[in-house]
Amino acid sequence: MPRYSGFMRVLLATIALLLLLPRLTGVDSGLTPDTAWDHTSVWSTPIWLRVWLLGVLFPVFLASLCFVRRSREARFAAGGFVLSHLPMASGLFETTVGNVGLIHLVCWTPALFLLVRRRPGVDPATPFGFWVHAMLVVIAISLAFDARDALGFYVF
After folding, report:
1. Domains of the chain: total
2. 14-18, 106-110, 127-131: lowest mean pLDDT where?
3. Does residue 108 lie within any of the structural domains?
4. Are 135 and 64 in contact (CB under 8 A)?
5. Would 1 be classed as within a structural domain?
6. Phi and psi of 74, rounded to 5°?
7. Which domain holds residue 77?
8. What's the pTM value of the predicted model, to 2 decimals?
9. 3-class DSSP assignment, residue 36
10. Residue 36 forms beta bridges with which residues?
11. In sequence order, what are the residues at sequence separation of 6 or more whose Cβ sits closer than 8 angstroms to the Cβ of residue 108?
């Protein structure tokens, strides 16, 4: 069995808590996987989700641009973010919460794997190290919810 660092244990425990105990934690978006994901639905979500999307997720992905010249992880994160929004912007399919979850899983998972491999070798006290840790947390938590939404839309 692999040994996880304290950072990874806390991250995994947080994800499990957010996914398995939504009533206890109060973490519920109020959106079902078949809800349309558009301007109206985004602004009708609870404040915590809007803060997460606009105050945490977007700025951390935007910060990837500071490191794209020197970091493959930053290139994959920024590229995955842009790539995940192209199908939605093009209108090629019905944009539901479940579809968006699947797109995020496909586009953001490569960056997650690269970040997990890189994290032990970076100093979190440096700007790049701080970004690696922040990006890892943001993608991991987001993909946990995206996986739940995609499975709810396509499987259950």
Report:
1. 1
2. 14-18
3. yes
4. yes
5. no
6. -65, -40
7. 6-154
8. 0.87
9. strand
10. 96
11. 77, 80, 81, 84, 139, 142, 143, 146
